[in-house]
């Protein structure tokens, strides 16, 4: 089960996601660091920080942080989804599919994970 955050940190985590979606990476990193200062092993926050770092072309650092996030929280669908997104951005579609399938096992109702997996399967002609 993913680690629970206090209400203040949970709101900050939603802000990290919103910052990533709005491509405000500097703000997202700053907010993620605030959360990680209080909860240094929060896997979901580490995963989102890795996704932001990848968007800033810091791929190696992003993968290292994503692996650390998975180590901290193996049962988090967010960590696995981000791991799949990192692989997809590096055009390693087979590994991306594996990560997305695992994320889908953990959170079968997630339309976003289903959509990303479907896109990858179409890309690889794996119907």
UniProtKB/TrEMBL annotation:
The keyword Transport does not apply. Keywords: TPR repeat. InterPro entries: TPR-like_helical_dom_sf, TPR_rpt. TPR repeats lie at residues 77-110. GO terms for cellular component: NatA complex. It comes from the Eukaryota. Gene3D superfamilies: 1.25.40.1040. PANTHER family: N(ALPHA)-ACETYLTRANSFERASE 15_16, ISOFORM A, N-TERMINAL ACETYLTRANSFERASE-RELATED. This is Uncharacterized protein. It comes from Photinus pyralis.
């Amino acid at each position: 089960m993913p680690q629970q955050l206090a209400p203040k940190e949970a709101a900050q985590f939603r802000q990290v996601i919103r910052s990533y979606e709005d491509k405000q990476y500097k703000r997202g990193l700053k907010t993620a660091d605030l959360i990680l200062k209080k909860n240094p092993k929060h896997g979901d926050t580490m995963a989102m920080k890795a996704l932001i770092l990848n968007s800033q072309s810091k791929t190696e650092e992003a993968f290292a942080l994503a692996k650390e996030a998975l180590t901290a929280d193996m049962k988090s669908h967010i960590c696995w989804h981000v791991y799949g997104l990192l692989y997809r951005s590096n055009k390693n579609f087979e590994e991306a599919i594996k990560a997305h399938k695992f994320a889908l096992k953990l959170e079968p109702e997630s339309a976003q994970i289903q959509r990303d997996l479907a896109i990858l399967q179409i890309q690889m002609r794996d119907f």
